[in-house]
Design goal:
mainly alpha
Length: 371
């Protein structure tokens, strides 16, 4: 019951933000002009294709991170689970998000290496978020170097505080990554002692084994990080194309590489699909980048167009969900801790009627050991 109340509150906050933005925009004549004036549909379609390509590229990134651990996994499975997870993350059905659904599903197919399999989902998310903070940090450094106008004193102060947080997170993440991927991390006495802890010792040992395998594949991790940066850059390009395809002035192409990552950080708040937070942040940044009188509600309209694109991509996951609704609902009521060896060994096709290409196979002994 508590979880349901939390979900209801999240949706209430999201729709309240959207309702406020709609109300504010409706009082501005520029909003009606933006809706009624002709649009460049070609650019809007290209924006859709760029966003779809960025979404699929993030799924390829997860596939590479899974294969780096020598787990049996196919690119087709990555796309299937990726679109399904995108839909669940966007709508936050039930209490199980898309990431957890992906983690539970892949864990069921890897009964002997469940911890490593689940870790790939959260490592993938961490890599994506860290790449976003790298871009945000670069944007703030560019603002400071060029004297980019961010608007009122209040907004400028908020930007300064956010920049300090972003730079701090980027620095801490770099240090943490270097420590975890250092040769001695999996061999030091503290790590060894953690593997002997009751209950969680075995899980810690397998996670250390995964860290050791990733350490041996640092070039692949760099590729994954580069792919993440590219995904966020493609997102900025998509927003710019939407702004260019809609009537009215918009910030420059280069400016979008500053304001879109910042707005995307706002969308990372724990709301269903980030609804409301991204729209409010982009509208504020547009107005402060060019002046409220110049762009009016253009930022909000662009954010709504981006929301429509997200809905179209989520529709792909919805089709997959409807094709295997019973199977997915069973997974939604399971948590990683509830998976037993018997249930993990059961065949678990993700999307009927097409069988999953995932196969159960014992992991090589060398892959299970911590070097």
């Amino acid at each position: 019951m508590k979880r349901i109340i939390i979900q209801v509150c999240k949706y209430a906050v999201s729709f309240s933000l959207l309702a406020y933005l709609f109300y504010s925009a409706s009082r501005n004549d520029s909003f009606r002009d933006l809706i009624d004036q002709p649009k460049h549909w070609g650019l809007l379609v290209i924006a859709l294709l760029v966003t779809m390509a960025a979404t699929m590229l993030s799924m390829v990134r997860w596939y590479l991170l899974v294969r780096a651990l020598d787990l049996p996994f196919t690119l087709r499975d990555a796309f299937r689970l990726g679109f399904l997870g995108y839909m669940f993350n966007f709508f936050s059905f039930g209490v199980v998000g898309g990431d957890l659904l992906k983690a539970v599903t892949i864990a069921r197919q890897q009964p002997e290496r469940r911890a490593e399999a689940m870790a790939t989902v959260f490592i993938d998310r961490a890599v994506g978020l860290y790449a976003l903070f790298i871009l945000v940090t670069c944007g703030f450094l560019w603002i400071n170097a060029t004297g980019f106008e961010v608007g009122s004193e209040t907004v400028s102060s908020a930007i300064d505080r956010l920049s300090q947080v972003a730079i701090g997170v980027t620095a801490v993440g770099a240090v943490a990554g270097c420590v975890i991927l250092s040769p001695g991390f999996t061999r030091n006495p503290l790590s060894r002692a953690a593997t002997r802890l009751p209950v969680i010792g075995g899980v810690v040992e397998r996670l250390l084994g995964a860290a050791e395998m990733y350490r041996r594949r640092i070039p692949l991790l760099m590729v994954a990080m580069g792919m993440s940066v590219l995904v966020h850059c493609m997102s900025a390009v998509s927003i710019y194309l939407l702004a260019s395809g809609l009537p009215g002035p918009a910030p420059s192409f280069a400016t979008h590489f500053v304001i879109v990552p910042i707005a995307t950080v706002a969308a990372a708040v724990p709301l269903p699909g980030g609804l409301g937070a991204f729209e409010m942040a982009l509208n504020l940044l547009y107005r402060n980048a060019m002046g409220a009188a110049t762009v009016g509600s253009k930022g909000f309209v662009v954010a709504l167009a981006a929301l429509v694109i997200k809905l179209l991509i989520a529709a792909v996951g919805m089709v997959m969900y409807l094709a295997s609704r019973k199977r997915i609902e069973d997974l939604m009521h399971e948590t990683p801790g509830e998976l037993t060896p018997e249930s993990a060994n059961e065949p678990a096709p993700i999307l009927a009627p097409a069988p999953s290409r995932l196969v159960d196979s014992p992991a090589p002994a060398a892959a299970r050991r911590v070097a």
